[in-house]
Amino acid sequence: MMFSESIKDADARNDPSAAVYTGVLPTRRAPRWARAIGRIVFGVVAVASVVSATAFSFASGSTGTDPRSSLTLIAPAGVGGGWDGFAREQQQAMRLDGIANNVQVVNIPGAGGTIGLSSFVTMEGQSNTLLATGAAMLGGIVMNDSPVDLTDVRPIARIAEDYAVFIVHADAPWDTVDEFAAAWAGDHGGIRFTGGSAGSIDHLLVAQFAQVEGIAPSDITYIPKSGGGEAIQTLLSGTADVAVTGYNEVADQIDAGRVKPLAISAPQRLADVDIPTFEELGYGVDLVNWRGLVAVPGIADEDFDAVKAIVDETAESEAWADALARNRWVDSYLDGEELERFLVEDQQRTAELVKELGL
Question: Which domains does the chain have, with CATH numbers?
């Protein structure tokens, strides 16, 4: 069974016009005609992605549906982003521990993961294809007024959590969050943020920080990107002043001295990571990015059990334990009814935050 339809009920309580994000700079609500164009563009991109993804599913299906011999993981973001990294670490762990053989990762980026989700729901019954999901997708569903959501798939497990870091260029004039907050207070729209897609956990963290600082969400200048890799390049090119992304995606840039970290969204400092948390600095920025996997709609129970066994074995493998440590991810495995309740609650919380902030 798919989890409770109450998620859709929660989304329906939000004003659809307030939930749609069509702009890039700044994050101000677009006029009605622009939002209409945005929906058309979303639809065109979704259709194109569905066509290509469906063709791919037929091709992969021709090799057989035994997930241990042929398994596809869809990352609903560009190469180099958090979902991409998560999917490829899953791929590697499955291969190294002999859990599955021919494991492929396919990227379908766009619209906070909802382009990938829209493509995925057309693969009904394709039991050897899984989709990476997480907190960012919940925001994307609301922001893009997505016609599909996680009630349209069958959740397998929440697997891990990671934390986002606010970084600035090495030459930036701010060395601390306090210094940056003071500068932002004096120039709300002039300071440019970048991160994942509109409605992503990166975007919501910026909005939450604005709320703490008493800055109206309409005054945020946010440049959405399909993944952390693009966001980092946007920062390094000087197009943005602050980037928000998962720590593991930018750790090498921090170590190389190309960027400076201001703070991280973890509840407490990460081991061997000398970056203060927003909590210890007195800022109430505490959203957590979680990642998991879902199966296609219409999957037979025996096929679902087969792919869940693969996910369970991977989560318990030595290779995955190494991936968690290497990426500074936290094991947060959750499945069954507890997962269903968590998804309902997290979707409601995300929808309410988006509505409250007027994004």
Answer: 6-162+289-357 (3.40.190.150), 164-264 (3.40.190.10)
Burial letters for 223-236: b for 16+ Cβ neighbours within 10 Å, e otherwise? bbbbbbbbbbebbe
CA distances 72 to 56, 58, 63, 68, 167, Å, are 10, 12, 12, 10, 33
Q: Is the pLDDT of residue 41 over 70?
A: no
Judge contact between 259 and 168, C-beta under 8 A: yes
Please report which confidence band the pLDDT of residue 27 belongs to, taking 50, 70 and 90 as the band edges. very low
Tell me how long the chain is. Answer: 359
Burial environment of residue 300 by CB neighbours within 10 A (0 to 12, 13 to 18, 19 or more): exposed
As a whole number of angstroms, the distance between CA 259 and CA 252 comes to: 10
On whether the CB atoms of residues 158 and 332 are closer than 8 A, the answer is: yes
As a whole number of angstroms, the distance between CA 244 and CA 164 comes to 6
What Cα–Cα distance (Å) separates residue 214 from each residue in 168, 211, 220? 22, 5, 12
Contact 133, 305 (CB under 8 A): no
pTM for this entry: 0.75
DSSP-based three-state secondary structure for 81: coil
Task: Tell me the C-alpha distance between 196 and 340, whole Å.
Answer: 25
Helices (H), the chain: 6-12, 16-19, 32-61, 82-96, 114-120, 135-143, 177-186, 201-213, 228-236, 247-255, 301-315, 318-327, 336-357
